[in-house]
Amino acid sequence: MSIEILAVLSSLLALGVGAGGALYYTKTRSKSAKLPQENDPEIIDAATRAKELVIEAKDEAFRIKKAAEDEARNIKRDAYEQERKLTSKEEVLERKSGVLEERERNIASRSEELKAKFEEVEKVKSEQIAKLERAAGLTREEARTLIMEAVESRLKEDISRKIKESETFARQEADKKAREILVDAMQSVATDYVPETTTSVVKLPDDEMKGRIIGKEGRNIRAFENATGVDVEIDETPGELRLSCFDPIRREVAKVSLEILVKDGRIQPARIEEVVAKTQKDIERVMRQAGEDLVYKAGIHNMPREIIDLLGRFKYRTSYGQNQWLHTLEVVKLASSMANQIGARVELAKQLALLHDIGKTVTHEVEGSHVDLGVDIAKRYGLHAEIVKGLAAQHEDDFPSIEAAIAAIADAISGARPGARRESVEEYIKRISSLENIATGFSGVEKAFAIEAGREVRVLVVPSEISDADITKLAHDIASKIQEQVVFPGEVKVNVIRETRAVDVAR
C-alpha cells in the first residue's frame, strides 16, 4: 500500500513541476514583451513543452506504480512459499517425533525383558554353582585356589626359562662392552702396592726405656697421653709398646713424637709437650702437602684450600687396611679412563671420584655417615650442585648422572680387586655366616656353603621339593636377598645344585 501512495505522490509532483515551469516561462516572456500576443511561437512552444512534461510525468508515474505492484506480488509469492515450506517441515518433525517416541517405548520394553532374562540367568548360575560345590565338595574360593595353583605350576617352568633367557641375553650384551671398558681402565691405572696400615706399635731399644717412658709415679706417661690424646699400652712384649686411639692422625702424631723422645732420651713432661707440639705442626705440613699432591696427580684445579687440607688427611687413614690416599687416587684414574671411553664429562667424574670419601676425614670428629658428612662439606664450601647430588647418591641404585655412576663403579673396582683390602677375622666370619644363613632360609634348601672367601655360595636343594624349573628362580631370589642385606666387595656368585643319587651295594 505504501508503494502505491508513493507512486501517486510522484505523479502529482511531476505534474506540479511541469505546470510550474510552463507558467514561470510564460510570465517571464510576458514581462519582457511590450505587447503580448497569443499567437506568439514561443508561447505556443512553451505550452507544448508543458504538455509533454505532463505526459512524461504520467508515464513515469505509471511505470513506477507498475513496478511497485510487481514487487508487491513477488513479496506475497515468496511469503506464501516460505509459509508452505514451514508447514511441510512441521509435518516432517511431527512424524519424526512420533517415530522417536515409538522407539523409546520399544527400547524401554526391551530393557525390561533383558533385565528379567539377566536375573533368570543369574539365578540359574547360582543354582549350578551350588550344585557343583555340593558335587565336588569344594567352595568357590577353594576351587579358584586349586585352579590358580595348577596354572602357576604349569607356568613356573616358563617363568624360570624366561628369567634365564633374559639374564643370559642381558649378560651377553652388556658383558662384552663393559669388560672392554673396565679392563682398559684397570690396565691403565693398575698398581702393585700392598695396602698400608696405620701402625700403632713403637719399637724400643730395650725394656728399660719402658720405665723411663712411664716416669716417676707415671707422670711422663700421663703427660704424654694428655698431650697426644692416645692411650699407651705397655705389656710384657719385649722391645715394643702400643698406642691406641680411634683418630689415626693423633695416633700418628703420638707415634712420631714417641720415636723422637726415645731417640733423644730426654723424656720429661715439658719436653714431651714441646715435641708433641712440634710434631703436630710437622704432620699438618705433611698432610697439606699430601693433599696438594693428590689434587695435582688427579689433574683437578681450583679446589678450595679447606678441601685440599681435608684430602691430605687421607695419608694417615685406612679403610679395610687400604690406604685412603692411594685408594682415592686410583678411583680418580679409573673414573677418568671410563668417562673418557664412553664420552661422559671427564672433569665431573674425576671430581666425584676425588671427593667420594671426603666425609671419612671427619667421621671421628662429627657424628653421621661419611656420605652425609661429605655432602655437608661440599655444600659448605660452595661446590657445584651436580657434585653435591652425586656424593649423596654414591651408595644408591639411582644415580643423578652417568658421572656419579662412573665414580661409584670406580670405587667398587678399587676396593674389590685382589690385594686391595683386608678385613678382620670377626668381620669375615660374620659375612660368611650371613651368606650361608640367607641361603638356608629359603624353603627346600638342604645345605649352603660360602666358598672362595665369600665370593661364591654353593646351595644344595632337596630334589623332592625343588624341581629343575625352580632352581633358576631360587638362585635369582637368593642373589637378590644377599644384595639387599649383605655388604661385600666385588660380587657373589650363587650356585644352586639339584641332584638325585641312587646307591646300591653288590654282594
Structure description:
GO terms for molecular function: hydrolase activity; RNA binding; RNA endonuclease activity. This is Ribonuclease Y. Keywords: Coiled coil, Endonuclease, Hydrolase, Nuclease, RNA-binding. The protein has 507 residues and is mainly alpha-helical. Helix content is 68%, strand content 7%. The chain contains 15 helices and eight strands. Strands 1-3-2 form a three-stranded antiparallel sheet, with helices on one face. A hairpin with a 4-residue loop joins strand 6 and strand 7. Helix 10 packs across helix 13 and helix 11 runs antiparallel to helix 12. It is elongated. About 3% of the residues have low confidence.
Strand element count: 8
* Mean pLDDT metric: 79
Broad structural category = mainly alpha
Query: In which range does the helix fraction lie?
Result: 55-70%
| Rg, alpha carbons | 55 Å
Q: What kind of assembly state do the chains in view correspond to?
A: single chain
Q: Termini distance?
A: 142 Å
Shape: elongated
Low-confidence stretches: 30-36, 190-199
Q: Tell me the number of helical segments per DSSP (H or I, 4 or more residues long).
A: 15
Please state roughly what percent of the residues sit in beta strands, choosing from under 5%, 5-15%, 15-25%, 25-35%, 35-45% or over 45%: 5-15%
As laid out across the biggest beta sheet, the strand order is 1-3-2
How many strands, what sense, and barrel or not for the largest sheet?
Answer: 3 strands, antiparallel
What is the string of SSEs from the N terminus onward?
Answer: HHHEHHEEHHHEEHHHHHHEEHE
